[in-house]
Amino acid sequence: EATICNIRLIAAGKTATEINVLETRNWSAKPVRFINSAGQDLHEVILGRFGSRFMVNPVPQLLAWRQSPLGTWTEDLSELVLAFRDSQGDIRCLPFTDRYPVFSGVDQRLALTGVTYVCRDQSLPFTATVTLRAPFYPQDPKLSGAPFFYLDVEVNNPSGSSIPAEFLLVRPHKDDNTGAGAPVQLAGAVTTGYKFQTNYTYNDESRVLPPPGTSNGYYPFWEGIAWNDASGITPHYADISDTGWIWGSPGGYPLPYSHQVYTFIPKGYSGLEWSFNLSPSGKARRTFVLAGHTSSSVLNVRGDNSYRFLYNQPSGPNLTSVDAVVDYALAERDSILEKSDFFDTVLSEQYLSPFPQAGRDLAAVALQNFICNAWWCYNSSGQEWFSVWEGTPCMFHSTIDVEYNDSWFYLSFWPDLLKKLLEAWPLFQKSNAQGRYLSHDMGSVASVNGMAYPHDMPVEENADYILLLYSHWKTTGDTAFMRGLFPKAKDYARFIFNCDTDGDGLPDLNVSNTIDQGSVAVQHARNQTYLGVKALGAYRAASEMALAQATPDEGFSSDCEARVRLINLTLENRLWLGDHFAVCDDPSVPQAEREAYSIYPSNGLLYLLAAGLDPGLTQANLERFRTDLANSAARTQRRYGHVHTSLNNENQWVSQNLWRDALGYWLGVEGWPQGQEERLARYWDLERYFATKKNGGFWDVCDYRDQYYMGTSEAAGLGLAIPPSADSSTKGAGLEAGGARGAYSLDSAFSQSLGYYPRGTAFFSLINAMARLR
User: What contacts 282, CB < 8 A, 6 or more positions away?
Assistant: First the structure.
């Protein structure tokens, strides 16, 4: 019955290798290798291609790099050498390798579609700017999903004399890529470069070697590197076992480290050298393209294994090879970047958005993580499929309660994608004694064959669906589409009717919800304020849609409005505690937990308010919601934001903090706008902490009860105190000094004690943008 938590192999009295339970090739508990100095501002980011899975992941805190054309959970930790050398032999590099010294000054700048590194060092007579671009433009699936990244390199000479210089790019190979499988020159019409074959799998292994006679679970890809100008370029790819062309490391490098950097064994290296001469006060530029492609099936949807990435579709993007991908990237570069640059202005122009810098950075990281989790495929019959993972390691396809947050992206930029989801979710509906209800999700990993989460959330998912269908209708004006799905919405609303057995308007059956890291009162109690108000919102939306039918359904509308009035009475008479709403009215829950402060009571009102629909509250209750939001914010605040409730919980979700923030605007809470800059700064501080000290990307969850880093030298260096024991009485200042839990437990997604996992699929900051731009 024991659990193995650590394996250490010792040779000659020294540790040869160590495998910790907290490590996989995807999440690393390894010690940080790079810490920013005064002249550096570096943190981990992820860039992706929309629906196509291709991603790159610079990991400066480990001096490492991840890259995969199949996306997160298939990428191995390795390196990418981007180095510069002057005529004296001095070398400086970006912090994605340990072979050479890192530039002493690096300024990292985020955009919605990429990241820029501005590099300088007193040892080199020039400066360098390296930009990774992931082009994106709403409603353009080819531009947004074509599986490539731009790597733009610009070197500037500030002096009055000519300067010769060199640039080096080195990419490791995990497959043999020798003999018949060696890299070969690209066959594109306008490109220069090379390509090679490789394989990826979701399995956690050091080398991808498909078992003989089977390809199940293994995905073959072509990858390529191309450049827009061959002058001065010397490629090295014909023999990956040859390392003689790679610049030698200076004394002290590679840096000593007690852990292996690679999670696979490099079988060789390919790359290129670029030699150039900088004129006085001049500059030199090159554009490189990192590309990947597969024509294989990658997704199983309802038993159909023929789904391939949309970029292959002949009637669509029609990018049928890696050669075609790089041809498109370089031949159409000007128009691609013109559109992508325009999209970047959404959060960069002051007249469009008054976001502070922390909000812009948060939006950039969140959008790219959303993009990384998207799937857009088509099958042998030409039918398309779109869904989005909930994040890793959950990997649930289009969880309704997560898309309930994500849908601000769809409604703002790409409504047809929400339309696809609204049509897909009913394919996985279930039924019980109360009627029909929707599944939490549609599958996981590469299989869309039914719900993978361990339990249903019927009332919540039905209410979310109704509100999303309503919001799509109000945003697009597509009444015909709404009418086509209204019978489903009506069924789902009647299911919620039937879950109220005690006549107070609040559901008391099928009440488990998505807040699976909150207290039992928050997630499972009967007569929850959160679900009751969300049901009220769904009833108001359903009532409005009923009256918009070709033949208005006045009877159903009246049924909905009767329940809205009933919930209003229950809010006033049983749930209002004088300065806030109770979490629930369930006598089986201890009184202190029932009466805790929570950030959730008004959650279900936001889509109604944003659509301009009267939420159906009495004036007194509307004022109570304003008071509740302000008082609950004061009682639940911690270091990086606000936890679910004020009692028996020290867990924070950034997504729900942002949702609550938007409600503060829409409800007109006094003084709320003035505090938003500080709130966004707290959230960004959390994301940046993960991305410099742990595993980066967008992380939704912070567990203030974590003891993992407390008491360590790293925690002391950050000024973090040891928190008190995490029991039901723990709250307040001691835990505010605690750090955020690392992303180390892959099997604890549903554990209250360890429960840390990323719900990082949402462009959450748009919630605030819409609130401020109404």
Answer: 156, 157
